[in-house]
Amino acid sequence: MLRGEAPSAGGGERRARLVSSGRMPMRRLPVLLIAGGVAFGMGTPAGYTAAPFFSAAPLVAAPFFALRGTVLTALAAVLGEIWVVLYRSGAARDHGESVTETVMVLAVALSALGINRIVRSAGVRPASLEDVSAALQRAVLPTPPERLAGLAIAARYVGARVADRSGGDLYAVQETPHGVRLLVGDVRGKGLDAVRTAVIVIGAFREAAEQERTLGAVAGRLERALRREDGRREGVEQTEGFTTAVLAEIPANGQCVLRVLNRGHPSPLLLTPDGGLRELLPAAPAPPLGLGEMASRPDRPDETFFPAGALLLFFTDGVTGARDLLGRCYNPSGTLRGCRFPGPDVLVDTLVEEVARHTGGASADDMALLAVQRPMGA
Question: DSSP of 208-251, one letter per residue?
Answer without folding.
Answer: HHHH-SSHHHHHHHHHHHHHHHHHT--THHHHH--EEEEEEEE-
